[in-house]
Amino acid sequence: xxxxxxxxxxxxxxxxxxxxxxxxxxxxxxxxxxxxxxxxxxxxxxxxxxxxxxxxxxxxxxxxxxxxxxxxxxxxxxxxxxxxxxxxxxxxxxxxxxxxxxxxxxxxxxxxxxxxxxxxxxxxxxxxxxxxxxxxxxxxxxxxxxxxxxxxxxxxxxxxxxxxxxxxxxxxxxxxxxxxxxxxxxxxxxxxxxx
Amino acid sequence: xxxxxxxxxxxxxxxxxxxxxxxxxxxxxxxxxxxxxxxxxxxxxxxxxxxxxxxxxxxxxxxxxxxxxxxxxxxxxxxxxxxxxxxxxxxxxxxxxxxxxxxxxxxxxxxxxxxx
Lengths: 195, 116
Prior knowledge:
The complex is a heterodimer.
Chain A: E1 10-12, E2 19-22, E3 37-39, H1 46-55, E4 63-68, H2 76-86, H3 109-118, E5 120-125, H4 130-141, E6 154-156, E7 165-168, H5 183-192
Chain B: E1 21-27, E2 32-44, E3 50-62, H1 65-74, H2 81-100
Antiparallel strand pairs in B: 1-2, 2-3
Helix pairs in contact in B: 1-2
């Protein structure tokens, strides 16, 4: 099984753990045996897409804790919660998200649906106390759930101009166009908004 | 021979490179620098508002800043001098961070811990 195909700034722990942790702007480290994957998450579009793509590659993950300090301007945690609760509209915009550019353009609706069904979100935004997060992770681990079906894997292919990512494994075609925001511009927008 | 000497000055405003932008990070699982290149895209929001977005075009990875720079130049992913210079600085920082086990965050300074 190809785990976590979309590379990022995350740490991989136990493949069989049911718990993934999004630490937003905070740097937190966890015992590898207790958490499947964790890392920071800074943007309300690309970052969320990476999380979704990597979570659905591991059906063992059934809980996603969102903790740490929220990311100013991007509102990455809020946007992820909104995505899980509401999905996206016809323009790819996360319904109800307060981030500056909350668009999901790369992943097809099937992947978003799968993500929303596969994991339960645990909102601990603002919590940076490692012990509290670990306590919650332990509590979730004591509520075992069956793995969520077969993994869905994004395949990255050798360079072929204009089409760097080919398809999901056998089932779902992946859009070759990935739309995210340039980080600096979002910061400017956030500053203009006075946030 | 007279050669003009001028003081260095920062630009007051960033001009976006029409070719696109980069996301740079260190993949700790593989001990590699990863550079994601995004082509610029404009999205229409409500009330005529437009926001900048991007389309993933290429992922370049490696451990050597010079090799990464050469590959990016060869692929013609930058079109402005200051953008190329910016990328060179970021990739050199990332290489140092990778080599010395330091945290790297794009657009942030590297924190070197003093020896006691």
